[in-house]
Known about the structure:
Blueprint: H1 6-30, E1 90-93, E2 115-118, E3 193-198, E4 204-208, E5 218-222, E6 231-237, E7 240-245, E8 253-259
Parallel strand pairs: 1-2
Antiparallel strand pairs: 3-8, 4-7, 5-8, 6-7
Amino acid sequence: MPPESQPLRSRRALLTAAAGTAAALAASAALPLTAAAADPDDVVKGVDNATTATTSITDSGTGSTAFQGHAIGFGTGYGVEGTSLGAGGVVGWSVEPPTTYWPDFDPAFTQYTGVFGSAPTFPDPNILATGVWGDSPDIGVYGTGGYGVYGFGGVAVQGVANSQTGSIGVRAIAPTNSQKALVVSGKVSFSRSGRKSMAKGTRAVTVSLAGVTTSSKVFAVLATSESGRWVRAVVPATNSFSIRLNTALLSSAVVSWFVLD
Length: 261
């Protein structure tokens, strides 16, 4: 073989090898991802991915969601399921973790809790932060069990009616006379109750109170001992009611009153 022909064959071999490599790369790019070699650390669909360390997803996109779960087939599959033997099944916090306002917080506190949510105090005192928020045109949060809803705190349970006429802050219902709609242990405070002083020689006093109507149920009793005197009648009017005694007082007195509706 002439020596001058050797470089020509080498260049052809190089070109042929390069063409083969390019074709292989193009074919590999055309294959679906599942056909490519799998990284053993990748999360695999359709199977349990066993691990001994935390698997996390961090999303820094504006307004994007880090993780979504959708169960759109027939049946009773969950969109997202969380379980834990030592802490809450699902734990979520907003803005800051609970340790920022609960220094000795321990995840073990949430054991035997299906869902635990937390949030620090809102910077605006007129807005309340919420650890868990439920919303629906029907029932926002529904609880069942030995205690359907249990609250503990400075104000354990608070109900606030909206601005619609006839709205109710808290409703208690007993289905029959065999149950109690409301049981209270301890003191009770009503904003539509109070005391009113009466001067010597008077036999009636008027109390102004917004919302009272002629059909309101108003009760009153003497809160001081007045021999031979008692409340003869309580007469409701628009935004007020009149407490009337059977006769004039021989000394100053005090009456206690209570408005039901």
